[in-house]
Design brief:
Layout (H helix, E strand, L loop, with lengths): L3 E4 L7 H11 L3 E6 L2 H6 L5 E3 L7 H11 L2 E7 L4 H13 L2 E7 L6 E6 L23 H4 L11 H17 L15 H21 L3 H9 L3 E5 L6 H5 L6 H15 L5 E5 L11 H11 L5 E4 L4 H6 L3 E4 L4 H7 L4 E3 L16 H4 L8 H14 L1 E3 L18 H6 L26 H7 L2
Parallel strand pairs: 1-2, 1-4, 2-3, 4-5, 7-8, 7-10, 8-9, 10-11
Antiparallel strand pairs: 5-6, 6-12
Helix pairs in contact: 3-4, 6-7, 10-11
């Protein structure tokens, strides 16, 4: 029998529905749990289950589901979401493999699919990478065969998001206990995405010459500090910071105390946080308090590659901008757990020292490490748009990743016995009954 797999929450949009088709083509039998109306809108296949129970019952529910459906692996998006943290613990308890989707370690043309977890949960954090252990490749071959992400994806992302939040609101009574990681107010969320589009146009206009100004005034004597989205759980879970404001304050205080007076720092706002946050007042206050007038720039829509390749260094928490910075030979200092925070790639000394001695990058190690990521946990593709026509998702798989996610009956032990069900005869399609009556 084909092995059963379970999909939990995916990225907003139809990606998980397409991924289910791809898993089916690869020989798996796919089940899916919908936690809210938005999930249900974008996934309407027969083997989908609507969970309407309480969050406190989610642990026991997932355990019953895994046992009764003989689930052998779970796929989810975002391992730090509260429902997914619980599911990962249950899966570990039962010996079920968990594969996590996330935005790509390599941007913008890749997404991540990694077993166990990403960033601070990645099994790569426990490995010591040496050049001799990594695949060999050349600078020229590094970008060969890479499908490029379509440029116009913002409008599609906006439509998906607005539809998702409308569906959450419309079907609230079906999922009354659901707890989302963001607000689910439909009108305000829709207004934010529309506002984000207008702000993008505004910042493109007013910041048209700001990068030229920074480079002409400071040359390469400036640091880049990319900000992550305000609700990014990778920040809270995998660093000492409890908010982006906390991070900004710590970095600016260190810069004021230890950076030479001829240096500047450029904070780059995250594009997906454009509609939610504006730190202008915070920067105005801190710059005045720390005496950094004329040395701090807060930008939204300048060209990131140009900003990085002309910078002296990059300071961040665990953003994937770190990999982009290394690509442009710009030294990186991480202040959180990141998979690329390795000797030879990132600065291993203190932030205090980094301002004046950023260090250098082992280019050969970076090229080989990047290739290692592509072969083991990066899919050339997008959650929003198909990059190829070779599969339902439009993803381009490496040989090793493809084999890992392909059902191969010849590798199954003939003596394998299915797991015993602890709650016999449970009809998992009727979750309302389960939530109220199951032990």
């Amino acid at each position: 029998m084909p092995p059963n797999v379970l999909l939990l929450q995916g990225p907003i949009g139809p990606f998980f529905s397409r991924f289910a088709d791809e898993l089916t083509d690869r020989g798996f039998n796919v089940w899916k749990v919908n936690l809210n109306g938005g999930d249900r809108l974008f996934y309407r296949k027969p083997q989908s289950i609507n969970y309407s129970g309480k969050y406190r019952d989610w642990d026991s529910y997932v355990e019953r589901l895994i046992l009764n459906k003989e689930i052998e692996r779970i796929y989810l998006y975002g391992d730090c979401r509260s429902y997914h943290r619980v599911a990962r613990k249950v899966a570990k308890r039962l010996g079920v493999r968990v594969f996590v989707f996330e935005e790509g370690y390599i941007r913008p043309n890749y997404i991540t699919l990694e077993e166990q977890g990403v960033n601070g949960h990645s099994p790569m954090l426990n490995r010591k990478f040496e050049l001799s252990q990594l695949p060999t490749t050349s600078e020229r071959a590094m970008l060969s065969g890479e499908n490029l992400l379509p440029k116009q994806t913002f409008s599609r992302c906006t439509v998906y998001s607005m539809a998702y939040y409308w569906a959450c609101r419309l079907h609230h009574k079906r999922f009354p206990e659901y707890q989302h990681h963001r607000t689910l107010k439909v009108v305000s969320e829709g207004a934010r995405w529309i506002r984000s589009g207008f702000r993008k146009l505004h910042y493109q206009r007013v910041e048209k010459n700001v990068l030229e100004q920074i480079i002409s005034e400071y040359g390469d004597n400036y640091f880049v500090c990319p900000l992550q989205v305000h609700c990014d759980q990778q920040v809270v879970v995998h660093s000492k910071f409890n908010s982006i404001e906390h991070f900004i304050g710590d970095v600016l205080t260190s810069f004021a105390r230890h950076a030479a007076p001829n240096k500047a720092i450029v904070f780059k706002h995250h594009p997906m946080d454009r509609a939610y946050k504006n730190y202008s007042l915070l920067f105005e206050s801190l710059v005045g308090e720390l005496g950094l007038q004329g040395r701090v720039f807060y930008v939204h829509d300048v060209c990131l590659p140009t900003l990085l390749k002309n910078a002296e260094g990059t300071v961040l928490i665990n953003s994937t901008v770190g990999m982009s910075s290394l690509f442009h030979d710009t030294p990186v200092k991480t202040l959180g757990k990141a998979i690329y925070d390795l000797p030879g790639l990132t600065a291993q000394h203190s932030l205090k020292s980094f301002w004046n001695k950023p260090g250098s990058i082992n280019r050969g190690l970076f090229v080989s490490f990047r290739q290692y990521l592509i072969e083991t946990n990066q899919l050339n593709g997008s959650f929003i748009a198909r990059l190829t026509k070779s599969s339902s998702t439009g993803l381009s798989w490496s040989d090793s990743l493809s084999a890992e996610h392909q059902y191969r009956p010849e590798l199954i032990d003939s003596k394998h016995q299915p797991r015993l069900c602890v709650v016999a005869g449970l009809d998992l399609q009727r979750v309302d009954v389960i939530d109220k009556k199951a032990a």
